[in-house]
Each structure stands twice: as structure tokens, then as C-alpha cells.
Amino acid sequence: MYGGNADFIEDLYERYLADPESIDLAWRVRFDDMCQPAANEAAETPHGPVRENFMRLAQESRSRARARSTEHLEPAAAEKQSAVLGLITGYRYRGHQVANLDPIHLRETPRIADLDPAYHNLEPNDLDLVFHTGSLYAPDRMPLREIVAMVEQTYCGTVGSEYMHITSTPERRWIQKRLEGYRATPELDDADRRWLLTLLTAAEGFEKYLHQRYVGQKRFSLEGGDALIPMLDELIQRAGRKGQQEIVIGMAHRGRLNVLTNLFGKPPTDIFDEFEGRVHMDWRKMAGDVKYHMGFATDIETPGGIVHLVLGFNPSHLEIINPVIEGSVRARQRRRLDRAGNLVLPVLIHGDAAFAGQGVVMETLQLSQTRSYSTGGTVHIVINNQIGFTTSHPLDARSSAYCTDVGKLVQAPVFHVNGDDPEAVIFVTRMALDFRNQFHKDVIIDLVCYRRLGHNEADEPAVTQPMMYAKIRNHPTPRAVYADRLVAGGVIEKDAVDAMIADYRDSLEQGVVVARPVLCGLDHLYRVDWGFCRGTDWDQDLDTGVPLAKLQALTEAMLRLPEGFALHPRVEKLWDERRKMGQGDQLLNWGFAENLAYATLLDAGIPVRLSGQDVGRGTFVHRHAKIHDQLTGDSYTPLQHLSDTQGAFIAIDSILSEEAVLGYEYGFATAEPTALTLWEAQFGDFANGAQVVIDQFITSAGTKWGLCCGLVMLLPHGLEGQGAEHSSARIERFLQLSAEHNIQVCVPTTPAQMFHLLRRQMVRDYRKPLIVMTPKSLLRHRLAVSSLDELAGGQFQTIIPEIDPIDPAGVERLIFCCGKVYFDLLEARRARSLTNAAIIRLEQLYPFPSEPFAAAIDHYGATEEIVWCQEEPQNQGAWDQIKHRFHNLIQMGKRPYYVGRASSAAPAVGHRAAHVEQHERLIDEALTGQFNPKMNKRIPPQ
């Protein structure tokens, strides 16, 4: 009845509760005595009393051990006792360095002095002396020989554990209890072992079958890391047993086809069709993707019920899937009201070189324990092939000792395990999942294995790694290693092993599902129907106005503060101004109209999630969605307190990350179509740090994978004379990526336009990403204002016509522009009292508003000069991506001109004086028609 064996005894007790006859008589009598109810109580069914009893026993035994370890000891004996405890600590800290982790033994095992008893002044004749074991989960007193054998088995076998860097004592003690209590060895019966062999046979059999049938075709084989299949199978089944209902997995391409076939139950015939080029989709409507990038979803039966499995679509940008999966998981948890992360589990599968080398790994880990991004802990699995693509030496692959060292920054435990020992793999899988569920923190499994073939099947790895691949060629496969072990142990006959191989191959030949039985046609309570967002009309005529009375009521609700709340004087002044705006006594500015848009959506029950590095206040101090009490420091978010029936609102001041946070919000938006999800960059060019998310997911996922997403990106844009940085949000890049109605690119210039644009994003019955070039100086520009009436009626205008009373017949020059430059043109024209130039704003650059554009030109039918004016350099901004829209004008005898800055490698000049000179020149040129001939040659006809 030792406290360190509590887990083992709890398992016995669970069996006792289910069937008392299933355990030994001595234990049955003991449990009967411990759980006798009082006369007036019902019989005990939970194991609370047993747990408490063993916790008490463990505490008492440790207390006694500590007391005895120092009581009545001679100085020499006390020194020896201290040395023994130091030796135990040495194994806990450094045992992993000499553990048997590498199946192919690439490098010599180092000598670690801390693990040598002599280093601690312990002599050979001390081995048979009995010492107190301290905090070791073992009997209170043991001979030193047995202590050494125990810690060697626990810390230096085929499992190497790193956890002593964790500062939380409960977490460290929990891990010690699991490792030392079980000696890093799982409890498996012969049926379990035969099932393990079955899974390894499937993992190997799938790869060999494809290798023979589709010679030379890329599949990114799992061979060498075959233990991933039993690891994931155990993870899924145990998660289901623990009550988890959904597992969302992100992984790169190595082993992906194997996972899809042997775990997700994707029919082998579908895999074969992909290899043979048979396409089950209309490629005219959807581009598709290579087979090892595709996602999948299925339902699996587990001892605890049905588990919904999702494998995220992932391009070849390796770790970029990490934040996308985390965001998707957060949305799924929110839908299930799973605040602790007990129902939806994220699992990320990495490559060793990518885990160490890709910065998004660190960014995603930094999100893991923050309030608005945590998903209750992630199980990370590293398929450690011990080689990064063609890197020839570990010294060239990373600077850290292990590829997993980055995980220590969030104090995640790391369990290294030899991929040729599937039983050890099962042990660490169970422990990792249980740790995650117990402490809701990330945990890392480092599956140390090898890559039998090259980076892809056409690669010859021995060209650059001759010594490594000489060992691999002579090394038996994980299945063969384990099969020999089971045959030698009498667990299975050799003929049965051969039959397993043949049966699996026959199943593949027949094309039947080879995974555990999958469940089809289930109607999930939390399933999302994306059908409404497909195949709809972009040009829907939508009234996004809100009744005036509702706007005023929401204004009052937004301005309501808790009693005694002390506003900052600047915010108090802004509150007074917003009150006047809501009453119609003052025109609306940008921040107020934006908040009103959110309020109207929330009032309709639509959740709003807004994130970025300074979104609560707003980078330019314009939003103030979150305010702070100047006396207490408490924050308050008025949009969360509109009514009892409103949608949820959250404004997240994120960590200083673009790539991970944008990827996270994209993942959230793909899993939650009913919420408005927004990400705001501090400046528009901050999005440069997340370009891979934009390229591989936001702009292309729809056409590659058929995914819908309503994510909104708010990118402050405008040349303000403050240098090249933070001037441009790179409109040209988004327009270059625009095709097939994949995204919307808009440049609203008034608060009313922003109000209607945000509302349109949710009122429309489809979901496409919306890229908004938001202003900086316009946030407080005296002309960039709107009235309440403009919010109460109307809709977003893709083109805003001339607003001054200019006679079309007298217009000689028609100027098209977008963004801030419009107000510069307007003010200059008014100052000069010009009436021969009309100015029209393009508020939506993609999808291009062709009909309104043509109508605007027709309205000024006699005008021959058509000008596109922009403040960005000629090779940037919108011009190069929309100038083909002007080609039809040539047939009408009109002359299109470009007016703006000359082409430049930088977005803007670095000196204020140069900026002003350039800007004045382009304004004058646009208004007067004195065009620069170097930049304004007529566009040749196509």
C-alpha cells in the first residue's frame, strides 16, 4: 500500500467497481474494508475515498522518509545519503542524454558524469547498502543497487524524459509519479501487443504497396517512422475514453497518406485514383491540390463514444498549419462551450528540422497560454528523422541540442522515444495525453526514428548521407523488429505474422477500408453547414442600413459605463463627442462608425472577434473598444454589455506576432462562419510578416480545397510622409493574388462606407476574405465624416461619384482614384475653384465594379481624358493591376493617363520635403492635365 503506486491501485479499484470477481481475493477484501459505507449512507461507487487514502499514505511515507533520512545519522552516513539523492536527481535531469533513443545508433552515447555513482563519492561496496529513496516513487528504503537499476530503467531506456526545467512542482511531481511508478513501461497484455503489430504491419504494408505499384511517384513515405500510426491510434482511442469528442490534426506531408488510409479510413481506391490521375472534381471550377496536401474528416468509434477526426489541409509550407489548426480548434471549442479544452483536442505533427527551424513554431507556442488563444494544451508529435531534407550533419540543422528545445520556452515536457520500441511509444502517448488533460498545457513527443528513403521517393539520400544510409539499408524495419520480439516472447507465431502481412495486402488489393470501422452519415450536434456560402452572386443588392432609432439606442448602450468608472480625460472628451454623434448633433468619425457596425451585428446575435497588436484602443487611438479605469486599472469593454441577448464580442490585444496570429484567425474563421472575425495590422505592411498565410491560405484555399472563409483583414494604408516603412499595405500584392472571385479588396473613404462594408460581410449569404485598406490620417480628417442618416439607409458603394455640383458637360478631365489621395485632390480643386475636373472614388478594387465604372464614364460622355491618380509609386498601388480595365476606353477614342509617383523600389521616400514635393506635383498634374510624358504614354490597344 505504497502511495507511489496510486495509479496502479486506482486501476485495480476501477476493475473492482465494475466486477469485484475480476481481481485477486486479497485486494477484494482490502477494498471491501476501505469502502464500507456508514449505516445511513449509500454504498460508495466513486473512488474518492481510495484516492484520498493513497494520497495520505504517499504524503505520510515521504514525510517519514525525509525524517528518517537525516535522523540519528552519523556525518559520513548522512553524506552518503545525500549523495544517493543527488544521484537520483542526476538521472532525472540528464538520464535522457544516455537513453537508448536512436534506432540506428548514429552517434556514440556520451558519458555523463552526473550518472556515475563515483562522481557522487559512492563506492562499489555501497551498492548493497540500504538508503532512503527520498521523493523517488519507490519503497522508502532500497539497496543502492536497486535504486540505480530503477532510475536507469526509468530514465535511460527507450524513453528519455525532459521535465526538470518545469518550475511547477505539481507538474514535475505528476510526471515523476507516472515515469517512476511504471518504470517508463506500459501495462500491455498479449492482445494489446498483437494489435500493435497489426498497426505496424499496416503502416509498413501501405508504403510497400504504393512503392511497388507506383514506382517513382512522390508520396513522402513514413517508412522508418512507422510507429506514428500506433501512436495516433492510441491517442485517438484514449482521448475518446477520456471524453474528448473531436480531434483536429495538423501535419505536413510526410506520412500523410498513411495516416489518411490507416487511421482516418479514407478508401484506398481514392488514394489509388489520385496516383493514377483520375480526378473526382471539376477542375474548371476548382484547381485542386496534390494528394499529400489534402484534408479529410471522419468519425471513429472509441470506448468513450464517437470521436470526430479532422485533418487540416496544408500546403508545403510545413509548420504554417500550426496556428491555423489552433484557431480552428478554438472556434470548435467555443461552439461546444468547451472553455477548458476538454472536448476538442489539437494535435500537431512536425518534422524535426521544421520544428527547430520555422519561426511560426515559436510564435504558435507563445500563443498557447494566452487568454484569448489558448486551446487547453496541444499534443505535439515530432517525426524525428534525424535529418533535415539534405542536411548532412546535426550541427548544420540547428543550434540546440534537441530539435524540440524550442518547446521549453513554454515549459512543455518533452518525451523522447525510440521509434523501434512501439510499447515505449504507447507509454509516452498515454502519459503525454494525460498530462495535457490534467494541466491544459502543451506537451511534446519526440519520435526518434529515421527516413528509409529520401526526402521524396525520387531522391537518392546516400549521395549526401552515405554513412547514415549504409546503416539504414542494413537495419530491419520497425515492424520486423517488433515482430521478432513478439515471436521470441511467445506472444505470436511466425506464421501469424506472415498472415498479417498477406491479409493487409489483400485488403488493399480489394480497395476496402483498412482502418478501424468509420462511421458515416452522422448528424453532429455541432456540425457547421457551409452550404449557404457557395455559388452565390457577388453583386447582391443588399440594404445594410439600420433604423435610426436602433442606432441611437445602441449608441446609448455603448456609452454606458459602470458606476464610478474613471475615464482618461482624452477618452472622456471622446465619449462626449460620441454622445453628440449619436444624437445627430455632430458628424460621425471613423472609430465611432466602426464600433456602431459591430454593435448592430452583436445586437443581431452575430459574434465579433477582433484581434491584433493594439486593437482594443486602436493603433491610432481611434477605436476605444476597450477602455481602462484610471483609478483601478480595470478594463471595460462596452460592446460586451449591450444586452442580455447579444452576440459575444472580444477585442484581443495580441502578442507581437503577425504570422501566427493571422494564421490563427484564419483557422478560426474557417471553422466559424457565423462570426465576424477580424485581424488588424498595426500598419498595413506588418502583414508582410504573414505573407505565407495570405498566399497559401487566405487567397488560394478556396480554389485549391474548396474552403470558405469570411476573415476580414484591416490594413492601415496611406503615404503620410513618414518614410518607406508603414506607408503601404501593398495593395498591388492583394490585387495580383485576386482571381476567380477569391477575395474582396476595398478602400473605403468614409465612416459610412466602413459601417456598410463590415455589415455587408455578414449580411451576405456567402463568405470570402475581405481585405480592407483602412486609413491613418483620415481617421480624424474633417472631410472624412458621415451622418447618422448615411448609416441608417443605403449600402456599401463600390464607386462613389462626384459629390460637388459640377456640370458634366464642362468636365474635361475625369479622375479616378482610391483612398486618401481623393481628399487631397478634392481640397486642391476647391481651393483652385476648378470645375473642369470630376473626381470619382473606386472603393472596391476587386471584384472590379465594371458596370458602375462604365456608367461613371458614360455620365461624362464628352470627356476625352481619363486619369488614374494614385499616391503610390507607379509599379505599386492599384494601377498595374487594374489598367487593363481602361483598355475598352481606347475604342471609344478616350485617352487614359497614369498620374502618380514614378516607379520605385521603396514604397515611399524617406524625407518629408521630398514627399511633399512629389505629392504636390501629382495633385497638380492630375488637376491641370500637364501630364509627365515619361509616365503617361497612351496605353496601346490589345
Automatic annotation (TrEMBL):
Q: Which GO terms describe its cellular component?
A: cytosol; oxoglutarate dehydrogenase complex
Q: Is Oxidoreductase one of the keywords UniProt gives this record? A: yes
Task: Give one Pfam family, short name only.
Answer: 2-oxogl_dehyd_N
Question: Keyword Protein transport on this protein?
Answer: no
> Which cofactors are required for activity?
thiamine diphosphate
| Domain of life, per lineage | Bacteria
- Which segments does the entry list as coiled coil? none
EC category: oxidoreductase
CDD domains on file:
TPP_E1_OGDC_like (cd02016)
User: A single Gene Ontology molecular function, please?
Assistant: thiamine pyrophosphate binding
According to its UniProt record, the EC number is 1.2.4.2
Q: InterPro entries this protein is in? A: 2-oxogl_dehyd_N, 2oxoglutarate_DH_E1, DH_E1, KGD_C_sf, ODO-1/KGD_C, THDP-binding, Transketolase-like_Pyr-bd
Signal sequence residues: none
- Every Transketolase-like pyrimidine-binding domain range: 588-781
State the UniProt keywords alphabetically: Oxidoreductase, Thiamine pyrophosphate
Q: Name one GO biological process term.
A: tricarboxylic acid cycle
Say what the protein does.
Answer: E1 component of the 2-oxoglutarate dehydrogenase (OGDH) complex which catalyzes the decarboxylation of 2-oxoglutarate, the first step in the conversion of 2-oxoglutarate to succinyl-CoA and CO(2).
Q: Which family does it belong to?
A: Belongs to the alpha-ketoglutarate dehydrogenase family.
> Could you identify this protein by its name?
2-oxoglutarate dehydrogenase E1 component
Q: What is the lineage of its organism?
A: Bacteria, Pseudomonadati, Pseudomonadota, Gammaproteobacteria, Chromatiales
